[in-house]
Amino acid sequence: MVQYTDITEYNATSFTEASRTIDDIDTIVIHHWGDDNQRFEKVCEFFAGGPGTSAHFVVESGRCAQLVEFKDIAWHAGNWAANQRSIGIECRPEMSNEDFETVAQVIADIETYYGKSFYVHGHKDFFNTACPGRWYDQLDRLIDRVNAIKEGKVERGIEGVPAPLDKEEVSALRASWEKLQNAVDELGKEIDNA
């Protein structure tokens, strides 16, 4: 079973020192770190090099580096109000099952640490960008996995984790939900007219 290792050797230089408390944070923002095939270490080094951007965490299969403390404000969402109330997580863009599971475990650990659940959004919810790429269509599934881990309904690790849905599967699922919603709306109209 895969557990993640905390990597502590990197520190971002672009962030705002603050004294945020649990009451100041209500959101986790999911990012992808750009193009496929970029290495975890290079992404961490990039943020440590002072590029004018940062994230609280960089995560991939089995590894998690915290670069900014929770109390401080990482520069990640492209939206100051969002930055002030969120924790930013940079994820491996390929989004393997192992990456997905590790990100879910990290979020479950953050929520357990704080004793509360957070809203989970993609970067593009706050800024005009394609980020978080493949992760965006899987955010609901990610939240479900986090909750299952916290509730003890699944063991930590990658066993039994289904592969992420591809775009066609997501489109088909959305179409079937729309069809179901239309049927419910029609039924509601019939009931109202009865």
Keywords, please?
single chain; 194 residues; alpha/beta; Lysozyme-like; 2 domains; six-stranded mixed beta sheet; two-stranded antiparallel ribbon; 5 helices
The CATH superfamily of the largest domain is known as Peptidoglycan recognition protein-like
Which structural category fits the helices and strands? Answer: alpha/beta
The share of residues in extended strands comes to 15-25%
| Principal-axes shape call | globular
What is the CATH topology of the largest domain?
Answer: Lysozyme-like
**Share of helix among residues?**
25-40%
- For the record, the count of structural domains works out to 2
What's the end-to-end separation, in Å? 57 Å
CATH top level of the largest domain is Alpha Beta
Report on the biggest sheet.
Answer: 6 strands, mixed
Unreliable residue stretches: none
The tally of beta strands, per DSSP, is 8
Radius of gyration, whole Å? 18 Å
- DSSP summary: helix tally: 5
Strand order of the largest sheet: 1-5-4-7-3-8
Order of helices and strands: EEEHEEEHEHEHH
Examine the secondary-structure arrangement and name the CATH architecture of the largest domain: 3-Layer(aba) Sandwich
Tell me, rounded to a whole number, the average pLDDT.
Answer: 89
Please write out the topology.
Layout: E1 5-7, E2 15-16, E3 27-32, H1 40-48, E4 57-60, E5 63-66, E6 73-74, H2 80-84, E7 86-91, H3 97-114, E8 119-122, H4 139-150, H5 167-193
Parallel strand pairs: 1-5, 3-7, 3-8, 4-7
Antiparallel strand pairs: 2-6, 4-5
Helix pairs in contact: 3-4
